[in-house]
Amino acid sequence: MSLGNNLPQVITPSWAVSEKVQALSTTRKGGVSQPPYDNFNLATHVNDNPADVKQNRRRLKQHCLLPNEPGWLQQIHSNKVVRLTAQNFQQTFTADASYTTDQNIVCSVMTADCVPVLFCNKQATWAAAAHAGWKGIANGILKKVVQIYTSKIAGDLADIHVWIGPAISGKVYEVGQEVKDALMQQDTVLEKAFTMQDATHYLLNSSYAAQLQLIKQGITAAQISTEDFCTYQDSERFYSYRRDGSNTGRMASMVWLS
Q1: Strands 201-204 and 97-100, bridge-based pairing
Q2: How far apart are CA 99 and CA 255, in angstroms?
Q3: What Rg do the C-alpha atoms of the chain give, in angstroms?
Q4: pTM value?
Q5: Which residues pair with 23 in a beta bridge?
Q6: Is 92 exposed, middle or buried (0-12, 13-18, 19+ CB in 10 A)?
Q7: CA-CA distance, 96 to 76, in Å (whole number)?
Q8: Rounded distance, CA 206 to CA 208, Å?
Q9: Class of domain 17-167+220-257
């Protein structure tokens, strides 16, 4: 199948990891979905034409040379993490993060303002992807991924690499007091991610909140790579739920071990 000039446009994480670790984050460019999902929507739950989403996923796998179909999650802003294996990756799990120790199993999360967080280790024997909106951070999703690595995988924190992908920026993401309260209940260090607007409203830098939560777990700032993108402000490249409401698509961020 020829894709012509309309190739999927993706972002390659800027992190210094083993060549055995493959990762990417999609944009809204390079697919066949019609407005308002134009045009590389990868989500089946947003009322886009199912045939278009199927075609977009086919383009993703072909153009980006994925070794398998990604392990798609039904995301619910929880702290639930699932392990993907060669036997189960085709199932749809209800969770907000996945990890694998198997080669060629693609851990993936979908976002449209929330923070996509990819993980791997120095040895390229473990990879994970997490969906970290403010609710996920408040529920401790990133803590859970790190805890699983140190307990179930018996990995060393110093070996972890993290990439934080495109999300809504702290310049425009206004939230209410209830959001601050929820995050502060999880960890008071997260107060650093808020800038007061008025008595009951704040600007939230959710990518920074993700960093703060990871650093609190023992990962150093030097182990974390970030991107200076804003999904809300860059309508040409990104979907944004805050900007466009429910009639918008989803990008996907994914990582796998080759």
Answers
A1: unpaired
A2: 9
A3: 17
A4: 0.96
A5: 255
A6: exposed
A7: 7
A8: 5
A9: alpha beta
Alpha helices in the chain (DSSP H): 50-63, 134-138, 141-151, 177-186, 206-216, 241-244
Q: What is the pLDDT of residues 69-118, one digit of tens each?
A: 999 999 999 999 999 999 999 999 999 999 999 999 999 999 999 999 99
Q: What are the boundaries of each domain within the chain?
A: 17-167+220-257
Angle formed by the axes of helices 206-216 and 141-151, to 10°?
A: 30
Reading the block at residue 148, the tokens are 């699983």
Note whether 196 and 125 are within 8 A (CB): no
Q: What's the CA gap between 106 and 191, in Å, rounded?
A: 34
Backbone angles phi, psi at 100, to 5 degrees: -150, 155
Kindly give, in sequence order, each residue whose CB lies less than 8 Å from that of residue 157, ignoring residues fewer than 6 positions away: 146, 149, 150, 217, 218, 219
Consecutive sets of 10 residues in the chain, 258 residues long: mean pLDDT of each?
Answer: 66 96 98 96 97 97 96 97 97 97 98 98 98 97 98 95 98 98 96 96 98 97 96 98 96 98
Structure token pair of residue 25: 């984050």
Q: 217: left (phi > 0), else alpha (psi -120 to 50), else beta?
A: alpha
Is 97 in contact with 80 (CB distance < 8 Å)?
yes
Contact 216, 189 (CB under 8 A): yes
